[in-house]
Amino acid sequence: QQAEAGDLGAYKLGGGGEKEIEEQMKALSDRLETINSALAKKYITRNEYDKTIQETQSAFNKILESSQTLLHVLKKEGAQLYKKK
């Protein structure tokens, strides 16, 4: 316990030193809060982009499926028209 008290005593640089450390801690806490807030906003944006990408991929797959179906129908109709000639 005395060793701990000695370690804490090493941090005391006088009356102004403790206040300076508290001010630095406050500044660092404020900076951390700002960074965490910015990071949270970036996570939200990333999630929105991911959702948009998934929706776009789904729409693309539907368009691809429709175009393949249309191509199949056109080939079938073309073959029938060719047979009638």
Describe this structure in words.
- The longest helix is centred in the middle third of the chain and has 70 residues, at 15-84.
- The chain has helices at residues 2-11, 15-84.
- It starts with a helix and ends with a helix.
- The protein has two helices and no strands.
- It is mostly helical.
State the separation between the terminal residues, measured CA to CA: 105 Å
pLDDT < 50 runs, ≥5 residues:
2-6
CA-atom Rg in angstroms: 34 Å
Structural class: mainly alpha
What is the tally of helical segments?
2
* Topology pattern, helix = H, strand = E: HH
Mean pLDDT: 87
Silhouette: rod-shaped
Helix content: over 70%
Tell me the β content. Answer: under 5%
Number of distinct beta strands: 0
Main sheet characteristics: none
Give the SSE map.
Elements: H1 2-11, H2 15-84
Write a compact overview of the structure shown.
This protein has 2 helices and no strands. It is mainly alpha-helical and 85 residues long.
Name a few traits of the molecule:
rod-shaped
